[in-house]
């Protein structure tokens, strides 16, 4: 005997749980399956993002930033706090409390919206049937008019650095250190590596980041990336580019890392080593052999522009499909697919998805980089404005960074916005809205921005696109 649903969602991360809630709101009988079990052995919702990703890492980033600020910057403001200490177990406890609160909140939202949750592993069978295997091994089959696969991703493991219980860890393990390591190695100089490296660096760890590529943050606008590297180096992170880790050797409570770069082979010893070289789509056990769903050459589920797989009525969203592995991208795909299933017109705009690195200062971007525009032969013009000329940034004691706007040379349409500075992650939505509404740089320049705010740098950068910035000398345009 099987239960029948209009929509069955496999996975309750930021893609799956949002898709399930929206589908239920649209009047569809909806079920959502989640296999995640927390440290206490309890089944929880929220996926990677809420349990071991976006949320817990931000809790640690905020705590470590406040500690670092109190220790190094308070004196600038006239605040005397000479004996500031960090209670790491208490910081971790607070992080866990926030996670519990939020995952419990999703369970309440499911109840409020009428979503039926199932604890266990979901597997898509032929004919849009979904098998649920409970934690006790029992099975049941759900029948669905539509299925949404939102099974997410897992960290990539590498042979030279096999994970151990507490010395060599992935990004999940790095969120549960009970004390600050004296020497910390990080394999991978991407978003996750820089954020986790920052947390423990601020708390006193000597951090070395090994990045195999020769270019720092290669996918980012390189004018911004250079400033970010300079800033993080000044903060104490040792960033080794073109450094490929070839072997690791655990000796007692430390690990020796062997890596190769242009100068040859080197060895370095750490107390902890974090492996964060990227994530891969999770499809293990999600698809039966006769389910009919195709994977691409990189292991992602193949979907069209509306997230439909090769099987009609079966959709896939989030980290398990193409596009940036970002929680907000997964959520928006979830809403889009729910709307499509309900018979509404909906389309995801993949050209206006913001990305943020939550170091301090933050780094945020949306749209095209200068390098991408050059490679595509698109005529463009730029406007750059530094935070050092913004009054609010001076008052905040954070004048590092800049706003950069790229606009089409002929139409003036905004093509990209890139920000390095305090609160960049909040300010980037100026750019998201500009791209979504096909704004020109002049549209932004003609708006009235509140003073004194950091967002004035966006206004000034928009003015600078045509050489009209007010609070700095403009570059003379080449004839």
TrEMBL record:
<keyword id="KW-0520">NAD</keyword>
<comment type="similarity">
    <text>Belongs to the class-I pyridine nucleotide-disulfide oxidoreductase family.</text>
</comment>
<dbReference type="InterPro" id="IPR023753">
    <property type="entry name" value="FAD/NAD-binding_dom"/>
</dbReference>
<keyword id="KW-0676">Redox-active center</keyword>
<keyword id="KW-0963">Cytoplasm</keyword>
<keyword id="KW-0274">FAD</keyword>
<dbReference type="Pfam" id="PF02852">
    <property type="entry name" value="Pyr_redox_dim"/>
</dbReference>
<feature type="domain" description="Pyridine nucleotide-disulphide oxidoreductase dimerisation">
    <location>
        <begin position="353"/>
        <end position="462"/>
    </location>
</feature>
<dbReference type="InterPro" id="IPR001100">
    <property type="entry name" value="Pyr_nuc-diS_OxRdtase"/>
</dbReference>
<keyword id="KW-0285">Flavoprotein</keyword>
<keyword id="KW-1015">Disulfide bond</keyword>
<dbReference type="GO" id="GO:0004148">
    <property type="term" value="F:dihydrolipoyl dehydrogenase (NADH) activity"/>
</dbReference>
<dbReference type="InterPro" id="IPR004099">
    <property type="entry name" value="Pyr_nucl-diS_OxRdtase_dimer"/>
</dbReference>
<dbReference type="InterPro" id="IPR036188">
    <property type="entry name" value="FAD/NAD-bd_sf"/>
</dbReference>
<dbReference type="Pfam" id="PF07992">
    <property type="entry name" value="Pyr_redox_2"/>
</dbReference>
<feature type="domain" description="FAD/NAD(P)-binding">
    <location>
        <begin position="5"/>
        <end position="334"/>
    </location>
</feature>
<dbReference type="InterPro" id="IPR016156">
    <property type="entry name" value="FAD/NAD-linked_Rdtase_dimer_sf"/>
</dbReference>
<dbReference type="InterPro" id="IPR006258">
    <property type="entry name" value="Lipoamide_DH"/>
</dbReference>
<dbReference type="InterPro" id="IPR050151">
    <property type="entry name" value="Class-I_Pyr_Nuc-Dis_Oxidored"/>
</dbReference>
<protein>
    <recommendedName>
        <fullName>Dihydrolipoyl dehydrogenase</fullName>
        <ecNumber>1.8.1.4</ecNumber>
    </recommendedName>
</protein>
<keyword id="KW-0560">Oxidoreductase</keyword>
<dbReference type="InterPro" id="IPR012999">
    <property type="entry name" value="Pyr_OxRdtase_I_AS"/>
</dbReference>
